[in-house]
Design brief:
This protein is an alpha/beta fold. The chain contains 11 helices and 9 strands. The protein folds into 3 domains: 72 residues, no CATH class; 61 residues, no CATH class; 174 residues, von Willebrand factor, type A domain (Rossmann fold), CATH 3.40.50.410. 36% of the residues lie in helices and 22% in strands.
């Protein structure tokens, strides 16, 4: 019975994963799913799933398999009476909350978008020490006793001494027979990364634009967490000035005023210089804006900061431009015009929720 349950559960999970893959674009654009995120699991609403199975009927019911049958004989056990409410012509919608781990979600995302595994750049590794069982020894704590090897030694000893009786195979290990697992510490490199999210919160960036950023950043974070043992995330918001905030403030703050993009890049450079040396960290700055900047002079300052300060230390610098009724969208044009030859600069346009899937592939498809 337990084996059957495990088999059915495995089939169910495969069906759930298949449903998610089939409708990945829809799930990616649903902000409600992000709100269901727990510590390690995400609850996803999927259509009702029924595993096919046989069901025995009553012997006195006619129909197929119960004799010849007569025209008009009902097949099955439907009720002809009862029921309340007004008749309708639309099928009912049955939804099921299916839980799936963040790791499985990242795996599905990577498979569907064909995302390459990330190869950490340079020497950005932190060395940790972990214990590993590597052999057998004659002394050790009882909690590490290797039972199979212990009884093997007892068997060998009794055969050699002639005390082993195959008709009554009783093995009683003595002190000399006992064997214990041995372990030693091994140095294991663990890649660590930092994401620095920057977002324009000036008057031209409304709730719709911030929602696009919130959804996309969730999926970016989900993928990068699957690639790195340690992941730090920092948040910067800016209008005419920039400041570092927590995640709640980052996604929900309401600001107004002008836009000076260089203020965010200056703060990003300062944080990286003080806390994230490029020889020890994989660095991923992400900047989201509607492309409006205060002046051409500040845009020139941004281009200089990118080329001389941020791009040289980053695995990849990603710029996502969201569509706004009030933004000019000029900054993306300036990046393409002046920094198109920079391989680790990736820019993407996010005009609506339908563009999120392609934008994620733009940002993560290089495997940097």
């Amino acid at each position: 019975m337990v084996a059957k349950i495990e088999k059915d559960l495995s089939r169910f999970r495969q069906i759930v994963k298949g449903t998610i893959r089939k409708n990945l674009k829809k799930y990616i654009s649903h902000s409600e799913m992000i709100g269901r995120k727990g510590k390690d699991l995400v609850s996803i609403p999927v259509p009702q799933i029924d595993l096919p199975h046989f069901k025995y009927g009553h012997e006195d019911v006619g129909g197929v398999g119960q004799g010849e049958g007569e025209p008009g004989t009902p097949i099955g056990q439907g009720d002809t009476e009862g029921g309340t409410g007004q008749a309708g012509d639309q099928p009912g919608e049955h939804l099921l909350e299916a839980e799936i781990s963040i790791e499985e979600l990242a795996e599905i995302l990577g498979e569907e978008l064909e995302l390459p595994r990330i190869e950490p750049k340079g020497r950005k590794n932190i060395i940790s020490r972990k214990g590993r069982y590597t052999g057998i020894r004659k002394v050790g704590p009882e909690s590490l006793r290797h039972f199979k090897r212990t009884y093997r030694e007892a068997l060998k000893r009794q055969i050699i001494s002639g005390t082993y009786n195959p008709d009554r195979p009783i093995l009683i290990p003595i002190r000399e027979d006992k064997r214990y697992r041995s372990w030693k510490e091994q140095a294991k490199p663990e890649s660590s990364a930092v994401i620095i999210y920057m977002m324009d919160v000036s008057g031209s960036m409304g709730d719709e634009q911030k929602e696009l950023v919130r959804i996309e950043s969730f999926w970016i974070e989900t993928w990068l967490r699957s690639q790195y043992e340690g992941l730090n995330i920092r948040y910067i918001i800016h209008d005419a000035t920039a400041r570092e905030v927590d995640s709640e403030t980052f996604y929900r703050t309401r600001e107004s005023g002008g836009t000076v993009i260089s203020s965010a890049y200056e703060l990003c450079r300062k944080i990286l210089k003080q806390e994230y040396h490029p020889d020890e960290w994989n660095i991923y700055p992400f900047h989201f804006s509607d492309g409006d900047n205060w002046s051409g002079g500040d845009t020139a300052r941004c281009l200089k900061l990118l080329k001389n300060e941020l791009l040289p230390v980053s695995n990849q610098f990603s710029y996502g431009q969201v569509k706004s009724h009030y933004g000019s969208g000029q900054f993306l044009k300036d990046l393409k015009q002046h920094l198109s030859d920079e391989e680790n600069l990736v820019a993407s346009e996010i005009n609506s929720k339908d563009d999120i899937l392609q934008s994620i592939k733009d940002f993560l498809g290089k495997g940097r």
